[in-house]
């Protein structure tokens, strides 16, 4: 073997290793144990803001966790997301999946409260709120700073989209559940890639599916995926159709799910006892370790 070959192998191994194992522990690692659901308030640009944090019962401050933000829809609240009201599953159904025995990392869930029950993100004030929450949460809890995620429904999905645009380097992936561009997309002209899951009902009468596709197509482009023609779930089919885009930059996949249904965070396929949203969101998020 030549030196060059060895160098190539070493580099390949290094890159592969780095991809899988890079952990950036937050300042909260090694601090006091804590678990349960806690409400916090803070001040951002002179405005009082609040959020609810869920820490799993078996939390161990020696281990860096995923951090998952979950933004409520217009007229909903953080407590509706936390408690599973107003059409939401508790913390969008993710804690039982993320903190099950099968997952070695686990997740801390955060339900933030919007101003006037919305996410207008005027002048970037909601992105500033996100920055502030990250700082506060990561100073007291052990988070892997490479494993921050955001999801949300409707206006809250739009807020997750604003995060995908403005904080692509701080977050690993987003899951946009029935969203539109309602909270802006201040990407500073950088068009950074971020792993993107989008989901929308074919017959959504509140936010048309075309709006969800616009968000998706922004990241199909930013992530360098091959454009393709996607046929959405047909009305009356009772189905969901999942498309995984090909050719995306490594580590920046795009998944699109359309379903036969309207404006809901918990759609089901015909005959199914429970919604596919938590499972599909978790399958997308858990690939990042
Ligand atoms: C917490 O995790 C560390 C590192 O994995 C382990 O050594 C320790 O025993 C764990 N503590 C508890 C209480 O499980």
UniProtKB/TrEMBL annotation:
Keywords: Carbohydrate metabolism, Hydrolase, Polysaccharide degradation, Secreted, Signal, Xylan degradation
InterPro entries, alphabetized: AB_hydrolase_fold, FaeB/C/D
Family annotation (SUPFAM superfamilies): alpha/beta-Hydrolases
One GO term of the biological process aspect: xylan catabolic process
Gene3D superfamilies: alpha/beta hydrolase
One GO term describing the cellular component: extracellular region
Described function: Involved in degradation of plant cell walls. Hydrolyzes the feruloyl-arabinose ester bond in arabinoxylans, and the feruloyl-galactose ester bond in pectin. Active against paranitrophenyl-acetate, methyl ferulate and wheat arabinoxylan.
Protein's recorded name: Feruloyl esterase C
Organism: Rhypophila decipiens
């Amino acid at each position: 073997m030549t030196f060059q070959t060895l160098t190539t192998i070493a580099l390949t191994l290094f890159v592969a290793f780095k991809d899988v194992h890079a952990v950036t522990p937050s300042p909260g690692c090694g601090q006091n144990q804590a678990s349960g659901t806690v409400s916090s308030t803070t001040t951002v640009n002179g405005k009082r803001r609040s959020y609810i944090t869920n820490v799993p019962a078996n939390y161990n401050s020696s281990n860096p966790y995923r951090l998952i933000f979950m933004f409520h829809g217009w007229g909903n609240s953080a407590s509706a997301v936390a408690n599973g009201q107003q059409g939401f599953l508790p913390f969008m159904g993710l804690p039982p999946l993320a903190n099950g025995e099968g997952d070695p990392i686990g997740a801390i869930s955060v339900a933030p409260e919007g101003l006037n029950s919305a996410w207008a993100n005027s002048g970037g004030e909601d992105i500033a709120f996100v920055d502030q929450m990250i700082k506060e949460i990561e100073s007291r809890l052990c988070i892997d700073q490479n494993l921050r995620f955001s999801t949300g429904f409707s206006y809250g999905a739009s807020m997750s989209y604003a995060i995908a645009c403005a904080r692509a380097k701080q977050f690993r992936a987003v899951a946009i559940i029935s969203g539109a561009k309602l909270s802006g997309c201040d990407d500073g002209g950088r068009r950074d890639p971020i792993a993107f899951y989008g989901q929308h009902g074919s017959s959504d009468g509140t936010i048309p599916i075309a709006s969800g596709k616009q968000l998706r197509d922004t990241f199909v482009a930013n992530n360098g995926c091959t454009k393709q023609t996607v046929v959405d779930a047909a009305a009356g089919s009772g189905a969901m159709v999942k498309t995984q885009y090909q050719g995306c930059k490594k580590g920046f996949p795009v998944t699109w799910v359309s379903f036969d249904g309207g404006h809901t965070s918990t759609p089901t396929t015909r005959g199914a006892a429970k919604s596919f949203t938590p499972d599909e969101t978790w399958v997308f998020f858990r690939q990042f370790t």
